[in-house]
Design brief:
Keywords: Membrane, Transmembrane, Transmembrane helix. It comes from Rhodoferax aquaticus. This is Phage holin family protein. By secondary structure, the protein is mainly alpha-helical. It has one domain. Helix content is 78%, strand content 5%. It is built from 6 helices and 2 strands. It is globular and about 40 Å long.
C-alpha cells in the first residue's frame, strides 16, 4: 500500500514540478504516472552503477556530483517518454532538485503515516 501511495504522490510531485518550473512539461496525470515509474526504475537500477563508477569525482566534489547523476536520471526519463519533456540539462538539474525535495517531503509524510 505504501509503494502505491508513493508512486501516486510522486506523479503528483512531477505535475507540481511542471507547474512550478517552465523547463519541465508533463502532458497529463497518466504521463506523470509513467514518468514517475520510469524515474523510479532508473534510480533503482542505473543510479547505483553510476554512483559507483563516478565515486572518485563524487568524493572530489564533496558529493555535489550526485546532483548531476540525479539530473541525468531525470533527463533520461524525459528522453525515453513522450508525455514528459525537459528542456536541456539545466532544466533537468533544476527539475530534479525540486522533484527530490518534494520526494523527501512525500517520504517523510508516508513514513509517519504508515509507522502507526
Amino acid at each position: 500500500m505504501k509503494l502505491l501511495a508513493k508512486w501516486l504522490l510522486s506523479a503528483v510531485a512531477l505535475l507540481a514540478v511542471a507547474h512550478l518550473y517552465s523547463g519541465v512539461d508533463v502532458q497529463s496525470f497518466g504521463s506523470a504516472l509513467i514518468a514517475a515509474f520510469v524515474i523510479g526504475l532508473l534510480n533503482v537500477f542505473l543510479r547505483p552503477v553510476l554512483v559507483v563508477l563516478t565515486l572518485p569525482v563524487t568524493v572530489v566534489t564533496l558529493g555535489l556530483f550526485l546532483f548531476v547523476i540525479n539530473a541525468l536520471m531525470f533527463w533520461s526519463a524525459a528522453g525515453i517518454l513522450d508525455g514528459f519533456h525537459v528542456r536541456g540539462f539545466g532544466a533537468a538539474l533544476i527539475g530534479s532538485l525540486i522533484y527530490t525535495v518534494l520526494g523527501m517531503v512525500i517520504n517523510s509524510a508516508l513514513d509517519r503515516l504508515f509507522s502507526k
